[in-house]
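Subject: sequence -> structure tokens, single chain

Hey, anyone have a minute? Need the predicted structure for the following. Not urgent.
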Amino acid sequence: MHKTVSALIGVAACFITSAHAQGIDWQKVDETLGRKPMVADDVHRYGFPRTDLTVTLDGVTIKPALALGGWLAFKPAHGGTMVMGDLVLLEGEVNPVMAKMIASGLEITAVHNHLLRASPATFYMHVAGHGDPVKLASAIHDALAESKTPLTVAAAGNSPSIDLDTAKLDQIIGVKGQANGGVYQFNVKRRDPVSDDGMLLTPVGAMGVATAINFQPTGGGKAAVTGDFVLTSDEVNPVIVALRTHGIEVTALHSHMLNEQPRLFFMHFWANDDAVKLAEGLRAAIEKTASTKS
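Reply:
Had a minute. Here:
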């Protein structure tokens, strides 16, 4: 009975959000944010990579797609839109950006690190809001102007090749990865739905509630890996053990949202080693979670 009721609620939500989506002037949102989104179903996701930064960790120069890719996702909801996002900031940028966000009525739902020993250190601010999408976009744009986050988009260059056996990585991780800016990225979905304030967060990759695993080639079949596991409380320590057993460092454990169901925890990790070996360790950790895998 519970599953039937959930399915009916989900269908009703789809009809409601579809109707709302038709009334949104997405072009104005694009113009306000100064970029085009990736569109997945009814979600418009805007990237804010910190292409202005040169961040190194353990001798690896981190590509924006590996760990510096801020984003905002807009989804029609409850007569307007909900926005969720993760913004990449330097230490001195956190409070000025936060002050602007608060003044505009946006919520700060988390501030934390992802990595250890990175130079310069970067911090990640999760934000949320609900209302008119153009007003939300304008408020976030003004807040980001308090940082050095690039607010204009540079012309796209040639994407570096991925010098890894990506077919082997796909086979081990259990889902198909995608190349993005010289980084090979995976999104592993959880089996159970996730909601926030009663709103179903779909598609899960665009809304930031899928486990993200990124490989950046570092030469000779090696790769730097980072990302975050999306976990329920009972999965946290089994995944920590699986990662550490396979030589993968756990660098952060925290929340991203305030009112999600089920309660979720996000675990970040780091290693630079043989890519296949790391994929096997990451797959061992995935096996400790209620995730979809082939």
